[in-house]
Amino acid sequence: MLVKPMFQIVDPGKLKLSLLMVVVVSCACSTFQPPDVNGPRANARPYPVAVTNDETKSAGLLAWKNLLAVRGTAAPVEPQFSPLTGTIAALPPNNTSEVSLPKVGTGTTPTEEEIRESLRRFINEWHEVIGAEPQHLSLIERTDEPSGLKLARYEQRPFRLALRGGFGNLLIRFRDDRRVVELMSNCIPNSEHLQPALAAVSPKVSAEEASAHVLGRTITLTDANGLSRSFTIPSGTALEVQQLVVYALASADKQALELHLAWEIAVPNGSIKSIYLDAITDEVIATN
User: Fold this and answer.
1) What are phi and psi of 137, to 5 degrees?
2) Model confidence over 138-162: pLDDT tens digits?
């Protein structure tokens, strides 16, 4: 009677191939895991979102020099740039550079429509110095001042959420001959790169929780003069959570700008109008 061997001799080449297939299948299983049903983690990116301004200032200064060179002029003194946004903060002192609005129309006195078109063309040309894309700027004021100067004020709307914190402003003051005598921008540069970082952050405090997190709480803030003050929102105060906003705030060392997601909370009949509660850190970051 024949007895079958307990162990079968396997061809070494086939054994190697079988082991290789096992490894490949195992790696594939570990790679193609089902997505996390909770979505991306809130702490996947640094928070608050930092605004880098070094490249913005360099680009703005280069654009400034190139634009003047095209006009055949050069400013011996560079304009002042904001340390927080890297955008132009002021024209050079005793400005002698030929910064002016482009001429629109053939008449001696431009119409209001021609003035606005001239401003639009100026912004398109100087947007690198201003630090904002033209399509993100909305004209909110156009007036003739008693001094004889003309004023145009714009508001930047670069994000899906409203921008708060006193940033995102552009001011252009000019004469009847179209010469610009004041140019100031604290717009948020590179907003198209900042929006994805903001969108990746999910609030940890809901709108329903925001009011409760403020009531009865002692709030300590430092004002523009560097003075610290504290106050408490009484528990019975009627508050209204209005919307989630992007709040631009100077960093602790005042050398950079940070973007926070915050709940804008209205305080009816109070000494302050609004409270801004960070939706991630649960801290009151500003009031006004």
Assistant:
1) -105, 130
2) 999 999 999 999 999 999 999 999 9
